[in-house]
Amino acid sequence: MKPSCLRVSQHGQSMTEYLVALLVVMMMVGVSFSGETPVIDLFLAAVKKAFDGLSGFLSLPL
């Protein structure tokens, strides 16, 4: 037999698996557990703080 005949072609549910994994990750990032701050809020607060620092530095006179 040729090696190409032994190859098994897989089709199907990889998109479903990616969507389920993405849903789980998004829930972990966006949903708070036991009253804690969601991770996305912490990330956005850090970005805002960094942007405020950068804009403050850029507004300094030369």
List keywords for this structure.
about 65% helix; about 60 residues; elongated; mainly alpha; 3 helices
Question: Can you tell me the overall shape?
Answer: elongated
SS summary, helix count: 3
Sheet with the most strands? none
Mean pLDDT: 82
**In percent terms, what proportion of residues is strand?**
under 5%
Number of strands: 0
Query: Which runs of at least 5 residues are low in confidence (pLDDT < 50)?
Result: none
Structure classification = mainly alpha
Measured on Cα atoms, how large is the radius of gyration?
23 Å
SSE pattern: HHH
How far apart are the first and last residues' alpha carbons, in Å? 77 Å
Q: Helicity, in percent?
A: 55-70%
List the helices and strands and how they pair.
Blueprint: H1 3-6, H2 14-30, H3 39-58
Describe this structure in words.
The model has no long low-confidence stretch (mean pLDDT 82). The protein is mainly α and 62 residues long. Helices cover 66% and strands 0% of the residues. The longest helix is centred in the last third of the chain and has 20 residues. It is elongated and about 70 Å long.
Could you give a quick summary of the protein structure above?
The chain is an all-alpha fold and 62 residues long. The longest helix has 20 residues.
